[in-house]
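Form P-L/3: holo structure prediction, ligand PBG.
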Amino acid sequence: MEQEPQRDLRALGPASAGFPTTRLRRLRHHPGVRELVRETRLSPAGFVLPMFVRRGQDARHEIASMPGHCQWSLDLFENEARRIAALGLGGIILFGIPDRKDEQGSEACDDDGIVQNAVRAAKRAAPELLVITDVCLCEYTGHGHCGVVNDRSGRVDVDNDATLRLLGRQAVSHARAGAEMVAPSGMIDGMVGAIRAALDAAGFEHLPIMSYAAKFASAFYGPFREAAESAPAFGDRRGYQMEPGAGAGQALREIELDLAEGADIIMVKPALAYLDVIAAARQRFPGVPLAAYNVSGEYSMIKAAAQRGWLDERAAALESLLAIRRAGAGIILTYWAEQAAEWLAGNRRTMTL
Ligand code: PBG
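OUTPUT (holo model):
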């Protein structure tokens, strides 16, 4: 038998292809190829728009710390809801500014409260728009803390278990008004379980809970506190929100407990300074829908820089959203939801990003 002449494979190229065989810029040469290999894509269907509502007529109070956002009176909010519904967003999340605040945050649980009325208004105007409500007492209490406050041995703190009952009632009241999902944000131990039990007892066992499971005590909530008029009158939130220096492991423990209590969707908040926590949550709980809150400070920083001409708002905002998505959040609560939906619709036509 004649032997095949041995091929000199070296003539066909090196075994491991480095430069110049491999040129990574080939994948960046044509815009169509860049788009094909980009992997992380944004869609308006994954965005949730936070909105602020208050009493009054024909009122549109601009929020100075968050350019482009307003506190809406319900008549104008109805038109807004109709307009927003056409953008194809994942939904809206509502925050209410009540007329009166008291120690117990009574209006939070009132079927005739501001958020309850806003939910009904949204459902009337745009039945197809998904309405989520924030469940927390900080907008409703005179002291601005996220629960009932007591003074134990000279240390003012939120009374965990007394707060749970109120959160359950607030969630049920939102559900009765027509909210399609509730989102507890107070970082009160047991809040998800208490709300789940209250909803189930009231016949809302189908209603999902999106838990602000790993929420850090962040300076980036600053502009929101003007928007929601919810700054604490004394002290801070470090007794219930997580320490920013706490590792992702502690955040995972928070998330694990919320899941055990029945959370359907978990959230990490803020987003940009906590991308490591988002990535860790994605890896550890691949089967659970994961949300991230691109908070007010993250929005206002870029807005302010853009107003001075220091940053291109569209590019910086979309890059931020892309980073949050790439870290693993499928749902992004963002004040750019509306603009981003418009930008993305434009991109599809011009393929510039
Ligand atoms: C209420 C709540 C806050 C935010 C969402 N829900 C404020 C806070 O915890 O102080 C912040 C949202 C933002 O900054 O965009 N508990």
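COMMENT: The first strand starts at residue 47 and ends at 54.
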